[in-house]
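Hey, resending since the last one bounced:
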Amino acid sequence: MTKGGAAIDEENDDRWLWPEYYRAFPAFSPETVRRGCHPRKLLHPGGADKAIVLVHGLTDSPFYMSAIGEYFHAVLGYDVFLPLLQCHGLRNPAGMAGVSLAEWQKNVRFAIDSATLGARKVSLGGLSMGGALSFYLAHTEAKVTGDLYLFSAALGLPAGPCGISGRVKEFLLRLPFVGSMTLGPPLIGRYPYRYEWVSPNSAAELARLIREIDGLPRPYTKPDGKAGRMFAAWSECDRVISLRRLRELRQRTADHRFVAFVIPKIDRVDHAGLVLKDPIYAKAAGPGARPLESANPRFAEMVAAIAGFEATGNP
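The structure tokens again:
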């Protein structure tokens, strides 16, 4: 048990180790990556017929996708791959200087390639910006032959103060000078598995990704031209992403190809909390401490909905 009463801490579970990832991306190593933020894979002995790549969000690390990954592995029988995105999870992030959408795509493509080595069917999914990356790559990577799973997917930004629309915020973030910004408060703070803040230059890369997504066909179409299936979960009290764009995606996609799991405002599930089976505490938290991030009280119901969705695609 971790201090503060959280469930078993997966950061020390050797089943999740992925040493090949460090060889593919030398900027990452056990020495440079923060404890618990490492890339992860969870395989069945002898491999599995199906695999999934789950991608973390803009400030966090593969730890956030571990509970969902565990479910896909233990209950649904998938091999699971959780890549660590460039400039994330580092002991010394240096303001995420040099962060690049192209490098994030390379990270995910490596995970997809790794998944295809043993599995016939490869699915893709992610949290927030990881969901947006998954949405884009599912449209463009022929090796993604399975389904798409979106969790609080950042397909757009919400409106800002003074009536600024999400579209305007995205445009401003794409201005050339924003991508060179690395100044700001330290990224390493109280949170053990993510950065304290969103760096401006990483937000600029997300805005560029959103522009690429805006050019994709709706509804979701795979590279072979066939319509794909999506499971999308979000919370109605999420203020980090554009809920309107998720609702529009739902409206534009045939019911038999889109399953939505929507948590009402009354449950007060925040943006990243959607994927948490257990709360996250500060490293130094003692007994009775309040969590930094609360668990999703409907996590079990959400993954059961995933199982139902997955079963309909596997007659």
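Residues 150 and 232 are 5 Å apart (CA to CA).

Sorry for the duplicate.
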